């Protein structure tokens, strides 16, 4: 087979160097996993290989694609010779990757050469990706995320590529769907003798699926090699850190709380139109417990969280907070970028929260029950941020730092319960580990009750004492973390646990 | 994907740096508006006798008898009238934009923040009025009612405000569901504080951009009224009025239409260009 | 079924809008300064008996709500009374004027759509290049410029300086005369409204170009013309909606442009009737134009919603 490689690849975008000299062999017939955190340049690499770099960018270096030298700064027209047939790219979001106004059939046919179109069989292309023929005449809006991603794969395969790059292509999917799509890719690679490049921020996923792993950091490749070799004997400090961050905190001793019950939710129900988001949901939380609430998108877990903090009104059921506790439940959301008001200084944001907390606590006569003498500096210490950040605005902070501020803001009001709604889902693995560690410590210090809403079983493994599993608005299983993860009883939990990639065997 | 987005934002801002911060057009617009402002403020010094000129029936060409732009059909100096006309060209439109902004903020916030039946009523009202041809109705209503310049301004405010209300309502609506607002809501902070401290700073740019666009529309509408002979009395200095008068003496003194026409076009373009520039800088899409 | 529901909701909206406008228009008679009976008689010297007769004829002594009802029931049969200036029935007075305006608006609408969508697509395709900058900046000037100012400048350039086109009136009615007389007014209208369509087309096309599905099509080497077609289809809903807006702007602008070019059209007639306080004519024309504008906007919105699915 013809060789494909890049040598000394440098990419500038608007005169910022993003990739600093990358050498990479694309080994034919392999599944190559490229792993890196946000800002590592892995997406730019995939765009360079397919000639899809944004405007105002220049690339230098040598690029040989299947034995032929390619000009990295070629026009779109020249790239048309290799795109599709030699190499193609599928993107992250299945909801935007297809033209919503045209039928699936014609979109799959788009990539087929005119001369081959008469012989091309859309039905068998669909069945190759596990879809039935009815899909051909549907519009993308009528399909689920997983089905759309299958259509995307079918469209990419219709051009008969030798190399398929999947850039975070399963990140937006639910755990179980993600597994199915990755299985599909693996099957197709074998049957078509293709090369697949998987790009992801998710090391466990890459470790499970790739046979050759490339670790990227800050526009450079820091380590590469056989998957087993990399995972078991990482040489570079960054790789070691990444692996460590992904299997941190296997807590063997789970807390058995003897404290009072602080929250009792009974038979909570909520519908949005036809859709029942919550169906007779009952949960309890004791003081100082960390509870995981696990579910996929649409399971109702976020509705549960919003109902407890009062952002959504329930149709039926009750939420009881222990009358001795003071302070409202507080919530930390997923997206660190929209969680803070970008117009205000950090100091103002925190001071406002402290004042709000004092007001509430004054009413029930328990000022500073948990933290005495609240002040903004103390809060910054609690979330491990330097005091001079107080005079900054959120715009100059990283995602992890913003999430720390969001936690500090929630803590400032002396909450009885802290609800984290996917609060670490959009953070890099290393940052995620730090934040989880911090929350764990906070529970110890403040005997805080934490409800952690997540789709990610590894979060439960790392932090929770107990967990509830939700599906279609109902709690299907409840138990200690050990029970849920290692001895799941409900078939849905079993499926979920089996599908989740993990570094812990 | 987040890193790619950041990258694109970075890319955009560095492209701006590359092309220098402000395009030439912005400087030109600022210069035009500055000039208009000087005319507005020092009008009585620059053109002291614009409105008490002797009425003669001879039209002079530019340059004759020291009249830079000649005289109009009543023998009045076109240049002086042009300077004096800045008043009605700017004050009314600014009042229109301001009035409609205030109505927009009040009702937009009520509607967007609280939702519910009040929102429904306000939204139906804006839908209804926005489907109507506002310039047409403005001319008809202001024209038939009569009552002069400030009555016309009032009519325009009423007809322009639905657009502001809808715009601010949807901007507020977009903010209200964002986590940063929900976070402070959970802290039981008073609604008025949330609106004033948290939401207002985040919608103020959109309101400002629209304020600029409204001034430009206001200028066009008000001068359209006076062009048709409505709104201002014939004795007033007004660019639209000048155009209407100059139409009949185009062959004798072309400057009597060219000068006010260019004045209106320049000022209105300059305001729109500045508004567009602000929108661009803050990444607001003015086309939707 | 869904369409039926959509259409009936839209019809209801239309009726409510028209009732709302009709109330405003009905009140014009009272908002005009002076005794309504005097307003209806214009500047004629009349005896108190004539005034009483007019009050009886227009039911001015009835309660307002009854008056409105009588006026409305006549209005739906297109009976708006007599023009104050001509003394003839409003419908007979306005008829010929409406046809001229319809011709002019249709002509400029076609020109605007071709120019606006065409140049908008070109401008988006050459984003940030010289051609785009020229097109965008000219469009900015044209959206800002009032139609009558542009019209007068065009009259000066083509009529006075170059003397190549007639500048006033509509000529003898032949096709060649129609075109030569309507050309400048149509260009004036087009200049004012096509820039709006151009800017929307440009920004919509840019939005589509940056979207994921276009990147994915390029990654699969889908033929460029297929991509452009896809982009246009996806951008067409907002473009159509703005075409409705464009029609509204066109009709409103005829007031000024027809006055400028002394064209005997409905816009010019409305403008002069407003000045002369010929209230019945104003009522009819405003109601008619508003109806026409709202209906055409609704049709555009309906097609746009069909495209959006």
- The total strand number of chain A stands at 19
- Most extensive interface: B-C, 49 and 55 residues
Beta-strand content bin of chain A: 15-25%
Low-confidence stretches of chain B: 1-20
Describe this structure in words.
- The complex is a heterotrimer of chains A (505), B (288) and C (309).
- Chain A is an alpha/beta fold and 505 residues long.
- Helix content of chain A is 33%, strand content 25%.
- Chain A is built from 17 helices and 19 strands.
- Chain A has helices at residues 42-49, 76-79, 104-110, 122-128, 145-158, 175-192, 203-209, 227-232, 237-246, 301-309, 346-363, 376-382, 399-412, 429-446, 457-463, 481-486, 491-499, and strands at 5-13, 16-25, 31-35, 57-65, 68-70, 87-90, 163-167, 195-200, 212-217, 220-226, 261-272, 275-286, 290-294, 316-321, 330-332, 417-421, 449-454, 466-471, 474-480.
- In chain A, the strands form four sheets. Chain A has a six-stranded mixed sheet with strand order 6-7-8-3-9-10, with helices on both faces. Chain A has a six-stranded mixed sheet with strand order 15-16-17-13-18-19, sandwiched between helices. A four-stranded antiparallel sheet of chain A has the order 2-1-4-5, covered by helices on one side.
- Chain A is globular, with a radius of gyration of 25 Å.
- The mean pLDDT of chain A is 87.
- Chain B is mainly α.
- Helix content of chain B is 73%, strand content 0%.
- Chain B is built from eleven helices and no strands.
- The longest helix of chain B is centred in the middle third of the chain and has 37 residues, at 78-114.
- Chain C has helices spanning 2-31, 36-41, 48-57, 64-75, 90-125, 130-144, 147-161, 175-209, 212-219, 224-260, 266-276, 279-308.
- In chain C, helix 5 (90-125) packs antiparallel against helix 6 (130-144), helix 5 (90-125) packs across helix 8 and helix 7 (147-161) crosses helix 10 (224-260).
- By secondary structure, chain C is mostly helical.
- Chain C has two domains: 2-75, no CATH class; 95-276, MetI-like fold (Orthogonal Bundle).
- The model of chain C has no long low-confidence stretch (mean pLDDT 82).
- The chains are: A alpha/beta (505), B mainly alpha (288), C mainly alpha (309).
- Chains in contact: A-B, A-C, B-C.
